[in-house]
Amino acid sequence: MKKIISLFYSNLFLSSRLFAALSGCVVLFVLSFFFPWLGVIPELVFWVLLLLTIIDLLLLYRTANAIFAKRQAPERLSNSDENELGIFIESKYSFTISVGIIDEIPFQFQKRDVWFKTILKSGEHKLISYMLRPTKRGEYEFGNIRVFVRSPLGILSRRFNFEQAEILPVYPSFLQMRKYELMAISNRLNEIGIKKIRRLGHSMEFEQVKTYVPGDDFRTINWKSTARQGNLMTNFYTDEKSQQVYCVIDKSRAMKMPFDSLSLLDYAINASLVLANIALLKEDKAGLITVAEKIGAVIPADRRHTQINKILEVLYKEKTRYLETNMEALYTTICHVIKQRSLVVFFTNYESMNAMQRQLPFLKRIAKLHLLLVVFFENTELKQLSEQPANNVEEIYIKTIAEKFAFDKKLIVKELAKHGIQSILTSPQNLTINTINRYLELKARQKI
C-alpha cells in the first residue's frame, strides 16, 4: 500500500496553471480585507479550483494504462552521421490530452533538452522522429522514456515511465558507405564529387569478341574472327580485376587530433570502409592493417561478400594509441602478408618534416614493393589563421607560424613525390572523396 501511495505521489506534478490560480485566490483573499463587498467570492473561487483539481485528478488516474510509448531505434548507429530514431506513442484516454515526452539519450551527446510536445486525440497514435549524430565509436546506453500527460483542464500532470533501457553500438560510418555504394552502382558518383577519369589506352584484361560498331577502336579488330564470320569483329577488354587494395590505418597519437568533434582516426576509419567497399564493387580485393607502437588487426585481402563485414567489425573496436608508429613492424607485416604488388593506402598524419623524415626510409622500402599512397591531413584551423589579416604584432607572429606549418605540409608532398611515393594532402571533411578519386585514377591509369 505504501509503495502504491509513493508511486502515486512521485508521478503526480502540479502545473504552472494551478500555481497561477492559487496566486489569484491569495490575491482575492487579501483584497477582501480592504474591499468587503467581495464577500464570499474568494472562498467560492477557491472551492471551484479545488473541485476542478479533483476532477482533473480523476480524469488522469481513472485509466491505469492510458498511455503506451516505445522507442524505435536501429540495431546500430552510424558514426558521424545523422541517425534517425523515433518514439511511438498512443493514447487510450477518452479525451484529447497534451503530452510532453523525455527520452533519456546517452550522456555522450551531452543534451539535456530532448523534450517533445504533442497533442493526442482519443485513441490516436503518433511517431515522433528525431536525429542523433554520434562522434565516437562504442556502446551508447539509452535510458527510459518519460511521458507527462495533461487533461484539457491542465491543472495537474501525470507521469508515465516506460523502462526501455538499451545499449546500441556505434559503428564506423556505414550510412556513408551505403550512399557511395548506391552512387557507384548507378554510375552517379560524379554527383558527390567523384571525378570521371579519362582512361589511357585500354586494359589487357580480355573479356569477349563482339561485333564491331561505329566508335570502337579499329586497333582492337580481330581479323581472324572477322574472316570466319564475314563481319567485322572486335576484341572487348574490361577493367583488370582481383587487384589488391590494402588500407593501412595509423592509430598512433598523431591521429588523436579532433576536427569537427571527430578524431582523425575516425575520419580515416570512415574513409577506409568506403574505399574497401568501392574496391569490392570494382571486383578488386580489399584488405586492412592497423598499426601503432605494434601491429593491430590484419585482414588479408579478399573479395568475398563477407569481407566488408569483417572490416566493419574490426574497425568498430579500434582505438587511438599514445605512442609513436612502429614503421619497422609495419614494413615486416606488409612483406609477410602482401605477396603480390598491391595498392597500399596509408592513412596517417604529419605535422612537420621531421616527423615524415623519421618514417621515410620505411616508406621508400614499401614503395619499392607496392604502389604506396600516403594520405595525411591539412590543419584546417591553422589554414584559417594563415588566411586572416593581421592587425597587430601578435597576430603577425601567429599568422607567420601558421603559414610555416601549412608550408611544411606542402613540402612533405614534394619530398614524398621526389622518392616516387604518391600522396594526398586533404582536409578531414574531403578525405573520403579525395581518396576514392585517387584510387579510381590509379586504376584508370593502370598503375596498380
TrEMBL record:
Signal peptide start-end: none
Pfam families: DUF58
Highest taxon of the lineage: Bacteria
Keyword Cell division: yes
TM region(s), chain numbering: 12-38, 44-61
Ranges of residues in domain DUF58: 208-371
Alphabetical list of InterPro entries matching this protein: DUF58 (IPR002881)
Protein known as: Cell division protein DivIC (FtsB), stabilizes FtsL against RasP cleavage
Keyword Cell cycle: yes
Keywords in alphabetical order: Cell cycle, Cell division, Membrane, Transmembrane, Transmembrane helix
GO process terms (BP): cell division
Coiled-coil region(s): none
